[in-house]
């Protein structure tokens, strides 16, 4: 995954029930293409400013790794992968994601 010109690695592992879950990435991960590890920096305030989530009591806003981990645990995707009108419905299912992107020809908006 790329963010702000830096490579960010997220380790995904199978979860019970056949879903995909976030295992977590250490602050320094080895590059899959070799070489030294790259530091991961969480820019919470920058992330909060860009976060499209409309669920106001959310404690994970700006903490993308926590958000992804939470939603994957429930076989969902985070708000940032949905167009605004769909995100507001709180249907964060993989099925809704596929439905929306098929209907839009692969575009978010």
Structure description:
The protein has 109 residues and is of the alpha+beta class. The protein has one domain (2-103). 28% of the residues lie in helices and 13% in strands. Strands 1-2 form a two-stranded antiparallel sheet. The relative contact order is 0.14. The model is unreliable at 1-35 (pLDDT under 50).
Based on DSSP secondary structure assignment, what is the total number of beta strands?
Answer: 6
Order of neighbouring strands in the sheet with most strands? 1-2
Query: What is the H-and-E element order?
Result: EEEEEEHHHH
Biggest β-sheet description? 2 strands, antiparallel
State the end-to-end distance: 21 Å
Shape: globular
* Portion in helices: 25-40%
Uncertain stretches of 5 or more adjacent residues: 1-35
Summarize the SSE layout with pairings.
Elements: E1 2-3, E2 6-7, E3 12-14, E4 20-22, E5 28-29, E6 38-39, H1 44-50, H2 64-73, H3 84-87, H4 94-103
Antiparallel strand pairs: 1-2, 3-4, 5-6
Entry summary:
The protein has 109 residues and is of the alpha+beta class. The chain has one domain (2-103).
Please tag this protein with its features.
109 residues; alpha+beta; two-stranded antiparallel ribbon; 4 helices; 13% strand; globular; disordered N terminus
